[in-house]
Amino acid sequence: MPSRQAAGFMMRWQQPLVVDGEVRTCPGCGGYRDWIGLCLRDDSVWLRCRGGHETKKPGLDAA
Ligand SMILES: [Zn+2]
Questions:
Q1: Cα(12) to centroid of ligand 1, in Å?
Q2: From CA 4, how far away is CA 26, in angstroms rounded?
Q3: Claim: this prediction has a pTM higher than 0.85
Q4: Superkingdom of the source (predicted)?
Q5: Is residue 35 part of a domain?
């Protein structure tokens, strides 16, 4: 899990997050909305659900 100091910026998705035509769900709790996206300086993207689970999304476009 990356440290907070490594975070480039954060984004918030309050609506369901759809990637490649599929709604992303949290593997930890099954949640599908109210995500926080952490975009790191190495261009990796992490998604955190409102339950605090984090999932790396290497294919997600940060834009
Ligand atoms: Zn979760």
A1: 15
A2: 21
A3: no
A4: Bacteria
A5: yes
